[in-house]
Write a structure and sequence with these properties.
A hairpin with a 3-residue loop joins strand 16 and strand 17. This protein is of the alpha/beta class. It has a single domain, classed as Purple Acid Phosphatase, chain A, domain 2 (4-Layer Sandwich). It contains five helices and 17 strands.
Length: about 240
C-alpha cells in the first residue's frame, strides 16, 4: 500500500485525471491546486434532524461536526472555490432547519470565495437563505464535476452519490473505511458528512463505471491515504 499524509515525510496522495493533478485529502475532500478548488461530496447537512422527525433520535450535532471539518480544510488549503458535489442537504427542507450558528458557519466559509452547490437527488433545489450558485454540473477544461456518475461519461468525471467504502483484512481482523475510487479515468469521492453511510466498492453499482484492471481504492486513514487495488478489498 502507498501511504500519503498532509505533512511529514510522506508525499501527498495525488490523483491524475485528464491531465490534471489533484490532492486526495485524508478527510475525503479533493483539492485541485492549479485551480485552488476544493471539492467535497455528500455533506448531508441536517440528517440528524431529518431522522428526528421520524422519531429516530441521533445526537443533533452532525451539521456542526461536518462544518468544523470543512473549516479545517479551508484553513489548510485556502481555496478560492468550493464545490459541494450534491446531497449537501439530507432533504429538501434541511436548509430551513439549519440552526443560527450553523448558518453563520456556512456564510463564513462562503465569504471571499466562489461556492458551487451541485444539485443532488436529495437536494435538487437552491438551499434557503444561503449564498452560492446552484448548478447541475460544473465543467472546467476536461474536468467535469457532477453528483451522480454516468456510465458513459467522458474522461475527467468527478462525482459523489455512491458513498464508497472499502473493507480490507489484516493481522488484527478487518476494517471498513471510506475511500476514493478511481481508475485514472474518473473518480468518485467518499461522503464527507458526519452521518453519511457508505457502500462497499465491491457492490455491483460500481462495476459498470470502472475499468476493472485499473480500479483502485484510496482508503482514508488517520492523516494518510492508502492506495489499494480493489482486488484486495473484501465484500461485506
Amino acid at each position: 500500500m502507498k501511504a500519503a499524509t498532509r505533512s511529514g515525510s510522506a508525499a501527498p496522495a495525488y490523483l491524475q485525471l485528464a491531465g490534471a493533478s489533484f490532492v486526495m485529502d485524508p478527510s475525503g475532500a479533493l483539492y485541485w491546486p492549479e485551480e485552488k478548488l476544493l471539492a467535497v461530496a455528500d455533506l448531508h447537512f441536517e440528517k440528524g434532524s431529518a431522522y428526528a422527525t421520524r422519531r429516530v433520535f441521533l445526537p443533533p450535532y452532525d451539521t456542526a461536526a461536518t462544518l468544523m471539518r470543512l473549516a479545517e480544510l479551508v484553513s489548510l488549503y485556502e481555496p478560492k472555490r468550493i464545490v459541494a458535489l450534491g446531497d449537501s442537504f439530507h432533504d429538501a427542507a434541511a436548509s430551513e432547519r439549519l440552526g443560527v450558528e450553523d448558518r453563520a458557519r456556512i456564510h463564513a466559509l462562503q465569504s471571499g470565495r466562489d461556492w458551487i452547490w451541485i444539485a443532488g437527488n436529495h437536494d435538487p433545489m437552491r438551499p434557503t437563505g444561503l449564498g452560492g450558485d446552484v448548478m447541475d454540473e460544473l465543467a472546467i477544461g476536461r474536468i467535469r464535476f457532477r453528483h451522480e456518475p454516468r456510465e458513459n461519461a467522458s474522461e475527467g468525471e468527478i462525482a459523489g452519490h455512491l458513498h464508497p467504502m472499502a473493507r480490507i483484512g489484516g493481522l488484527g481482523g478487518t476494517v471498513r473505511r471510506r475511500c476514493f475510487v478511481s481508475d485514472g479515468y474518473r473518480c468518485i469521492l467518499p461522503a464527507f458528512g458526519a452521518y453519511a453511510g457508505g457502500l462497499n466498492l465491491r457492490d455491483e453499482a460500481f462495476g459498470f463505471l470502472f475499468r476493472e484492471a485499473d480500479r483502485f481504492a484510496h482508503i482514508l486513514g488517520r492523516g494518510h491515504v492508502y492506495r489499494v487495488s480493489h482486488r484486495f478489498c473484501l465484500p461485506d
